[in-house]
Design a protein that fits this description.
Blueprint: H1 2-33, H2 39-69, E1 87-95, E2 98-106, E3 113-117, H3 126-132, E4 141-146, H4 164-181, E5 187-192, H5 194-205, E6 210-216, H6 222-240, H7 243-252, H8 262-278, H9 290-294, H10 301-318, H11 327-330, E7 338-343, H12 351-360, E8 366-371, H13 378-381, H14 383-395
Parallel strand pairs: 3-4, 3-5, 5-6, 6-7, 7-8
Antiparallel strand pairs: 1-2, 2-4
Length: about 400
């Protein structure tokens, strides 16, 4: 947090200094053209320029230090000691030629490996999972992956060049790394929102490498989901007399959206529905703790900026590629156990679509686990029960 404050102060100082340099430069040039003496102003301009450069160097140095020193906290038990066989690493990998980051956390390196697939596309939940699901670290080596175009892996690939296959192939490469490093024949998957779809893509293409998949906030049909969400936001807006929202929705029109403003148009109804769920008294622990997560030690200052850039830019470039996908048509047979952890009050990813999919899905084991006090994110809304159900599905069945 101190780094953020210093960075903001230095940035503000540099902006103010630059704002002073510009008119002073214009004045000095004007005086010079008129062949008047301007030595005093030139000296002042030079001092300002040197000061500006010094502040910028300090800021660049601060950013560099923050990136180099980013880390994930060590595992500690109830007495504050670190278990002998524990693991707590922040590691950069090269997956198919793309540099990407993962965190690895667990009380025992020999425990089963669990890969968490974040939502988005473009989202990073490396810190959020550590905060909300720390209990899982006692039973698994929990791996969080900043996918291409998100957080610490924002520069892995140009966002306009990222495809769905990019995620699938890099996810497979990461799986191979984890299997080899931890001597595990198979690993477990949890996918959240967009990550729930990526999880299905991975187990469909490489079933031999996964023990089971849990999808939460499960996405099924992307176009239908967007249309349902749009209609739901319009319905709630009309019931609440929210004229401003209704006007924005009408101007944007019904999704799907394409082009440069996909993120901003989608955000109109997605943010509205998110606020609606957060205000539902039946939903416990509502909303994301964004400021806590951004301030977490896993992210350097550049990562903190890319935290938002991923959500905006990567989502905009990648999400329209998902419009043609409908799990009910394209992924009706999976050769691994699949479980859906659904919030009873989720109006972001319509649960009726998941129920339809679960009915037609052919899998060795399948099922829906309902979370009565959750919206789109049961792992945040009811983390204790979420962990308990993960253990039942993954280790007791």
């Amino acid at each position: 947090m101190i780094q953020i404050v210093i960075f903001l102060i230095l940035t503000l100082i540099s902006v103010v200094t630059l704002a002073c340099i510009f008119p002073l430069s214009v004045y000095c040039v004007t005086v010079h053209i008129r062949k008047r003496s301007n030595r005093k102003w030139l000296i002042r301009l030079k001092k300002m320029a040197i000061f500006f450069i010094a502040v910028m160097i300090l800021n660049m140095g601060l950013i560099t230090v923050s990136q180099v020193t980013a880390s994930t906290p060590r595992i500690v038990d109830e007495s504050g000691k670190t278990p002998v066989n524990s693991i707590a690493e922040l590691r950069r990998l090269e997956l198919n030629g793309r540099k990407q980051w993962i965190s690895l956390r667990g009380w025992d390196k020999n425990a089963p490996v669990l890969l968490f697939l974040a939502g988005g596309p473009g989202g990073t939940q490396m810190a959020a999972v550590r905060h909300e699901l720390a209990e899982l670290e006692k039973h698994f080596v929990v791996v969080n992956w900043d996918q291409p175009g998100s957080g610490k892996s924002y520069y892995a690939e140009k966002t306009q060049d990222i495809t769905i296959d990019t995620y699938v192939q890099d996810g497979y490469a990461l799986t191979e790394y984890l299997r080899e490093r931890f001597s595990q024949q198979k690993i477990y998957l949890i996918g959240e929102s967009w990550g729930s779809a990526l999880g299905i893509f991975l187990v469909s293409q490489y079933p031999q490498y996964y023990n089971a998949l849990i999808g939460t906030g499960q996405m099924i049909d992307f176009v239908e989901t967007e249309r349902i969400d749009y209609a739901k936001a319009m319905e709630i807006g009309k019931n609440n007399g929210d004229i401003a929202l209704i006007e924005k929705l009408m101007v944007n029109g019904e999704p799907p959206y394409y082009g440069k403003n996909v993120t901003w148009k989608s955000a109109v109804y997605l943010n509205y529905l998110g606020t609606y769920m957060a205000n539902n008294p039946e939903v416990h622990n509502p909303g994301y703790n964004t400021f806590r997560d951004i301030a977490s030690s896993e992210y350097g200052l550049l990562d903190k900026i890319n935290f938002f850039r991923g959500v905006i830019n990567t989502f905009n470039d990648v999400y329209p590629q998902l419009y043609d996908i409908d799990m009910r048509m394209d992924y009706t047979k999976l050769d691994v156990p699949v479980y859906f952890f659904l919030g009873r009050h989720d109006i972001n990813a319509p649960t009726v679509l998941v129920e339809e999919y679960e009915q037609i899905l052919d899998a060795p084991h399948k099922g829906i686990v309902w979370f009565e006090h959750s919206g789109h994110s049961p792992w945040i809304n009811e983390p204790d029960r979420f962990v308990k159900e993960v253990l039942v599905c993954f280790l007791e069945k």
